[in-house]
């Protein structure tokens, strides 16, 4: 015998059938109600007490619950049983109650117990309505727990990533500080070289001025020599007369040539110094650009 109970949803003011619960659903729901920890097994005494709670007082005292307990736990050790064991025992117990009712033995008790169990779906809707709600709440809590665990793992990974990023940024910052220190040192050296280059430019300008003055002196002496040579040509006719003057002029010429030679030597020395300073300037210029 299988009885089907309809559970009505009246939350919107109308009686709409939301789902149907069979006799097996009623039996299984008692087991799930007792198995709060989801272990898959429930002690026999706890199941018997739960079934006892849905019976009327007169049927509860009939002694049939002891028969159920004997079927589920013959040794009375109150050991936990599985859903399959519980389901088989209760079905056998209800079958025995049905047979007793049909044979006329304990008709009132058997029919009364079956009536209590079968009427549980209609007269005690809260019990079967609460069970799905509990399951839904447990599922929601499990989902929330899993989601929070996932978010916690993500936060831990983000924290680890942030720590790695901070470590990497610290290393990069230290590297930038060292590079900045090196750049500052190079800048100081560049300023020093620039100052030295300015001194060299000033010295080169002085040497160039001396070179210009020397060239003008050489030109002037050359003009003087040319003038003296012209005078010597004009004085050839007066050679004998002006022999003494000529000798003096010759000596003067020799002296002037010596002076010119010395000036040329000075010019060559100045030219060498100028080239040396230019090479030094080019060397520091190349060093500063590199």
What does this structure look like?
There is one protein chain. The chain has 290 residues and is mainly alpha-helical. The chain contains nine helices and four strands, in the order E-E-H-E-H-H-H-E-H-H-H-H-H. The strands form two sheets. A two-stranded antiparallel ribbon has the order 1-2. The protein starts with a strand and ends with a helix.
* Strand portion: 5-15%
Number of helices: 9
- Rg measurement, Å: 62 Å
Oligomer: single chain
Overall mean pLDDT stands at 76
Number of strands: 4
Biggest beta-sheet profile: 2 strands, antiparallel
Short structural description:
The chain has 290 residues and is mostly helical. The protein has 9 helices and 4 strands. A hairpin with a 6-residue loop joins strand 1 (5-9) and strand 2.
Features:
290 residues, mainly alpha, two-stranded antiparallel ribbon, two-stranded antiparallel sheet, 9 helices, 79% helix, 6% strand, disordered N terminus
Task: Give the topology.
Layout (H helix, E strand, L loop, with lengths): L4 E5 L6 E6 L1 H12 L6 E3 H9 L4 H4 L3 H9 L7 E3 H21 L3 H12 L1 H4 L1 H110 L8 H47 L1
Antiparallel strand pairs: 1-2, 3-4
